[in-house]
Known about the structure:
This protein is α/β, with parallel strands linked by helices. The chain has helices at residues 41-47, 71-80, 95-105, 171-178, 194-197, 240-246, 251-261, 279-288, and strands at residues 3-9, 23-28, 31-37, 55-59, 87-91, 114-118, 126-129, 133-139, 147-153, 159-160, 198-199, 206-210, 228-232, 265-269, 292-294, 300-302. The protein folds into two domains: 3-154 and 204-302, Ribonuclease Z/Hydroxyacylglutathione hydrolase-like (Metallo-beta-lactamase, Chain A); 176-203, no CATH class. The strands form three sheets. It has a seven-stranded mixed β-sheet with strand order 6-5-4-3-2-1-16. The radius of gyration is 22 Å and the shape is globular.
Amino acid sequence: MEFExxxxxxxxxxxxxxRHHTAQVLTVGNMQYLIDCxxxxxxxxxxxxxxxxxxxxxxxxxxHGDHFFGLFGLLSSMHLQGRTEPVRLxxxxxxxxxxxxxxxxxxxxxxxxLEFILVDTSRHQQVYEDRxxxxxxxxxxxxxxxxxxxxxxxxxxxxxxxxxxPAGLSPAQLSLLSQGEDVPATAERxxxxxxxxxxxxxxxxxxxxxSDTLFTPENADLVRGVDLLYHESTFLHEMLERATITxxxxxxxxxxxxxxxxxxxxxxxxxxxxxxxxxxxxxxxxQEFEATELGVEGKTVRVPEVRD
Length: 308
């Protein structure tokens, strides 16, 4: 099953040189989840051939404009194109008020149900679940209430070894095996042991999105062993004082966080417009955590299935 992240925007507060405001799409199987929705996200979706009508769930980290100013336009376009499927919107207090005001003054009555689910940005807790994944909030330390999100695949079923399966098993019996159960004996067949005909399931994959935040090493335990980690890296470490004042992180701190968390891979983003060349940011993070990549526009990162 597919598990991949598409980067739509990598800029911080001011867009610059083909860097757009923060937005990402996580695809798991046939489900797509939008993470933050900076200005003009819908154009980035079109550019990268992501059909916004497939997006049913949106997660907003906080109410700074570079993370949600594109939301009203995206929802309006969904309405204009006749969407009828509901949209679930997760975010901090106040987001519903902002959108309600915009819809009221533009006389917009959506063609679909928009369900707002309030997220307590100060807590680490499960906020969402479907047949593929669970999502937990991650408390960030920013100038306003802000959270990240941890996406985890649900435990998978065991793999059936086809050439070991006896003929004539029913769908119900195959389901039992894939769930790790033995098939009881029948008049025609002795008890079928699960261990004889199945293999271990693929390991569940995970993605952690750490939005705008001061360096918060205590969060490393919340995302321990994550397969793919995104951490904002607004500044080089030489500007630590500026990062601290604005409640942001440096590239070095992002690398250190990934190392503390035991992540497999790190993406850095949310780059200040002062950096035309992003190579110094990449190198600085790699000094702390070698498996670091730039989370730039259009980048797609796939997390492959792996059996333990």
